[in-house]
Amino acid sequence: MTEWAQRLAEFTARKEHEARVAVPHPLTTEIDRATGDLKRIGNAWSERFFGGSFCVSPPRSADLPSTSLVFVRSREGNTGAADPETLGGGATDKHLIYEGLSRVAADAVLAGAETVRSGDLVFSVWHTEMVSLRSALGYPRHPIQIVATLGGLALDRALLFNVPALRVILLTVCEAEERMREALAARRWITTLAMNQPADLPHACRTLRQWGVERVSAVGGRTMATALLDAGLVQDLYLTTSPRSAGEPNTPFYPRPLRTDLVTRKHGSGPEAGVVFEHLRVGTT
Hints:
It contains nine helices and twelve strands. The protein has helices at residues 3-21, 44-50, 90-104, 113-116, 128-136, 174-179, 181-185, 201-210, 222-230; strands at residues 28-32, 39-41, 54-56, 66-73, 108-112, 144-148, 168-173, 190-195, 215-218, 236-241, 260-267, 276-282. It has a ten-stranded mixed β-sheet, sandwiched between helices. The chain is globular, with a radius of gyration of 18 Å. It starts with a helix and ends with a strand.
């Protein structure tokens, strides 16, 4: 086994263990306005703790994927933190929603460069029940890993760029692709999707749909979220708000007012009382 394959095996074992020993607490439903056009996802375990089915929106058009944003924020609305767990979303949010239902039926998980720059990360589902549900829905073990970078990345430092078994798409611009040319040549399993300029993001998403990507779960950071929202590419926002004061000040997931329609609001229970989960559908204007 190569060093990178060993690191993936160790990372997977650690994440699966964390999910297995975590103690989730059932969410209670305050509001449920889910409509018939939403796709309902779940199994007996997830519905027990989520309080029903988890919903995702269909694509707005035949040529674009359905895209969701997943964020946890502090009571003040801060989303910036070196360790997102310090924001106070809790174990239920992490294992049931963030690393579970929000990506269990996703073809791909999209993250910005700063999110993956730290090293050993793979964006997938880890709880045994979520792994089983993803398989039952007909998806491969891990979603496609899409990483967005405008400036380029040191590909030799991050786990997900060095394991050929992972399908990776690098979303970038032509200038940055050229800077990474040598590193990419040594990693033929990485597919590049190069834009002439950042404003070409809608065209890039259309290309993803042509490549068979029908549903994308975007997990940050804020720069990527803003670009997706400004381009009108987001259908669903899964937002967990904690009762904790935490995070870097003045780091909302989006810097301007956002038109949304509330689908579901749920509340944490037990030691996670005060946590609020909301599913919002994002307007096109």
